[in-house]
């Protein structure tokens, strides 16, 4: 900026390059968005933008048809063989035939009981899931009739359990005195669900410790994988049974799928940073061997799965009680407490 001979800066009137301050309304501004330019020749384009790209038409999946037909054929042949074999034994009309009849009856009875148990497990798991979702909705919307319905179904669900007899009695004595939906759910949680939470935490911690120790001392990676999978399924079954699900094989598989979905949706699969920070914070990273580090990591993974299983199997959301903290359980598993 230049100065005059007197040493003063020229004013705005003598400096036409400078613009005077002006005010305007934001509503008066018209934003013009220019059209997107045409892509240059040779520019990579997405599948949907490429003109003339042949579309893949979904037809018959011959691979699936082949596998399904082959499995059905093998099952049919095995059934026919078993049917002819049993008929031949019965046609003998001696003690061997009668033994075959008794064994066949036992097989059919056991199969029927297994099917009924699986159906009962699936139904109880579905009832738990429905009660939890409706309880969460009643707490968020302060819906007193829905909270009353949830409480009644929860009492029917836990009826006959000796470990919850005192809680059922206390809930029956005080539920009619509460006018608020959240307070009613809080009482239900305190009397029926809270006594089960410390046991669930103990199950998760003991399973994670067992996985950590075996993984740290086992020299075979295949044995590690099989043991970790077996322990996690065992932990899932224990937690589900604790909260009243009583899962069979298929209901256990459904529960495992629900737990994996819950972990993915809540972002809990990213546990590496938590474990590393926990270990670094106690200055143990340099002293951990590779196998011991693997043991701690597998124990942390089991802990994460256990917490997710509690979230899925717990019939009520956390209203008064505190959700198990991942860091605290990992510290307990690693012996940092």
What does this structure look like?
With 337 residues, the chain is mainly alpha-helical. It has a domain at 196-334. Helix content is 65%, strand content 0%. It contains eleven helices and no strands. It has helices at residues 62-91, 95-141, 144-157, 165-174, 181-193, 197-217, 221-242, 249-266, 272-281, 290-313, 326-334. α1 (62-91) packs across α2, α2 runs parallel beside α8 and α7 packs parallel to α10 (290-313). 23% of the residues are buried. The model is unreliable at 1-6, 9-13 and 42-53 (pLDDT under 50). The chain crosses the membrane at residues 62-83, 95-116. Belongs to the UPF0283 family. InterPro entries: DUF697, UPF0283. Residues 1-23 are annotated as: Disordered.
The shape, in one word, is extended
Helical segment count: 11
User: What integer value in Å does the Rg equal?
Assistant: 33 Å
Name the quaternary structure: single chain
* Helical content (DSSP H or I, runs of 4+): 55-70%
Distance between the ends: 69 Å
> What is the N-to-C order of secondary-structure elements (H for helix, E for strand)?
HHHHHHHHHHH
Taking pLDDT < 50 over at least 5 consecutive residues as the criterion, the unreliable ranges are: 1-6, 9-13, 42-53
Amount of beta strand: under 5%
Count of DSSP strands: 0
Helix/strand-derived class?
mainly alpha
How would a textbook summarize the main sheet?
none
Give the overall pLDDT as a whole number.
78
